[in-house]
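2024-03-11 09:14:02 DEBUG pipeline.ingest accepted 1 chain
2024-03-11 09:14:02 DEBUG pipeline.ingest length=266
2024-03-11 09:14:03 DEBUG pipeline.predict start
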Amino acid sequence: MKLLGRRLWLVLGGIIVVVVIAAGVLYTSNSRQIAKRNQLQSDILQAQLVLNRSNEEIKLLKSQTPQLTDTQLNEAKAYLASISFLPSSESIEYDTMLFSIADSCKLHVANLVASAPGELEENKVKYQVTTFTINVEGVLPGVLFKAGTESKQYIDTNVNRILAFVSSIVTSNDFKTAIITSVSINAPEPLTDVLVAETYINLQNEIKDKLTADEKKNKTAFEIEQLVVDKITAMTLDEINLFLDKQGFERPSATILFVIWTYKGE
């Protein structure tokens, strides 16, 4: 009986050990799965926050904003009354500043128009009001895309540069009396792989048509094709941009309208 009892306890003890080990394995496995799931949920939430923020920025700057409301206008006037203005004779050459900001953002100023200054009187205080309309666009890439993904990257980069340009106007001390009233961004669709290939073929045909008789003399079709490739490889940045421009290459662009207030006196 004692021997049987010892064996029974040994068997029961073995079962308990197996159960405990199995439970430990299951707990460890479940803990890892839970941790992995929590990390995945955290990544998803973080990605969603970034996506929402990006969408809000695009909605804010890409859509055409309406005219200022009365409340916004009153707030702007209150702000203007609280700061010091440069006399008009010492006002900054805003066009020069805008070209400088665009250049630092690696953008091209396609057009810049300033309205004739008008006067506005509020609470017996006179202001000079000038409206600026500026069109900026991304610079031509200077290279031939090898795939549609490169086209998308080019567009994304230049849209970000436009956003940086607008942000620079908003945060610059030189434009502290400026109020942006409208921002309209045009971001073209990226080129597909097919369109990228067609662009390269068009360039090949253009160069081939310009080959002289002497350049083609005593050359096989393969040698002529190789000569065309060599000429494409030797093209400068300006030559590639000229070709892309003739092909109607569309660049990201934006039209920004803003008003500058200048203190005139009482």
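2024-03-11 09:14:41 DEBUG pipeline.report Confidence is low (pLDDT under 50) at residues 1-31, 47-55, 82-92.
2024-03-11 09:14:41 DEBUG pipeline.predict end
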